[in-house]
């Protein structure tokens, strides 16, 4: 039980102080009246919020993993500590959106079995792109072994359908497609993909529309949510009209000037995941998020954090702070990191402080609705009703 806490329930702040009873892995009661329990965490007037959810991470080290030996070294020596960092920063659920399918699903199974300490792990397996698309021909251009495992390259509708069915058979939690889906060779809308690590850029074109539609339709046939990596307005529109449930990154490489695109997101209930932590270098990313949030578009927190830069967990908190700097209120960002992210992940059991929900809870020493930086003033992390981190 957690006693005498202010509560942000995933959507709003509750007036007054509350006790929160936990039974097994679920919240049993949220009461303004004092409760009694066998074990008690005294919040002492601090704040309780749902455990944070980062819906866009890349966990395996894309630079260090290049053959079976380096994969084993990473999994044995690096992986456990990196997983622990998420819990130490209050992130109780992460969603991997482009890691080697076998490795990330084995990691998911080990966490679920309790043999590995870490946050709840959701995974898409490999990201699906066109032949020669991003990230196959960009991030993995010099690492053919990882390219084959981190990405799924397809160049026909049948290959797209087959790969989505294969991932669904592996029981992934969602499907991720990449609109930057093929090298420019067929006269489509080509553009230069740029990244600080690739100053000369790589010329790409969007994933052919028939492949995009096939991936989304097949994912939906298998009952899976499908999100699409986009960076341009035209690609975002194409993805939504094809039935995408969410946009990873959204619009980053240009100003969001097409108001009808925002209306389309509202009409379809599309989730917008801005990933400012990685895309903050794009001058339009913050302003585009502000426009989408002010219009009422559903926002989910996803940092696009990856192994090798910064620290897992801390990067997620930085993402929350960047979202506030972009013009969202702390309460809007907290919603995006809890109930909004849970909706994006199709996990209604997560992201809310209410009876019957998963007991993934943070106890904070200060009010995060007043200052989002107070997420860093963390006292206790509870995962599935059990104490995961205690900094008291």
Gross morphology is globular
C-alpha-based Rg, rounded: 21 Å
Distance between the termini: 16 Å
Low-confidence stretches: none
SS class: alpha/beta
Tally the helices.
12
Q: Would you summarize the structure shown here?
A:
32% of the residues lie in helices and 27% in strands.
Describe this structure in words.
With 392 residues, this protein is α/β, with parallel strands linked by helices. The chain has helices at residues 68-88, 101-113, 144-150, 157-169, 209-221, 233-241, 259-268, 276-279, 285-295, 314-325, 330-337, 339-344; strands at residues 2-8, 13-23, 26-31, 41-42, 47-50, 52-58, 91-96, 120-123, 127-130, 151-154, 175-178, 182-183, 190-195, 198-205, 226-229, 246-248, 271-273, 298-299, 305-306, 361-364, 378-383, 386-390. The strands form 5 sheets. Strands 1, 2, 3, 4, 5, 20, 21 and 22 form an 8-stranded mixed beta sheet that branches. Strands 11-15-16-17-18 form a 5-stranded parallel beta sheet. The protein has a 4-stranded parallel beta sheet with strand order 8-7-6-19. Strand 16 (246-248), helix 7 and strand 17 form a beta-alpha-beta unit. Helix 4 (157-169) runs parallel beside helix 5 (209-221) and helix 10 (314-325) packs across helix 11. The radius of gyration is 21 Å and the shape is globular.
What topology does this entry show?
Layout: E1 2-8, E2 13-23, E3 26-31, E4 41-42, E5 47-50, E6 52-58, H1 68-88, E7 91-96, H2 101-113, E8 120-123, E9 127-130, H3 144-150, E10 151-154, H4 157-169, E11 175-178, E12 182-183, E13 190-195, E14 198-205, H5 209-221, E15 226-229, H6 233-241, E16 246-248, H7 259-268, E17 271-273, H8 276-279, H9 285-295, E18 298-299, E19 305-306, H10 314-325, H11 330-337, H12 339-344, E20 361-364, E21 378-383, E22 386-390
Parallel strand pairs: 1-4, 1-5, 6-7, 6-19, 7-8, 9-10, 11-15, 15-16, 16-17, 17-18
Antiparallel strand pairs: 1-2, 2-3, 5-20, 12-14, 13-14, 20-21, 21-22
Helix pairs in contact: 4-5, 6-7, 10-11
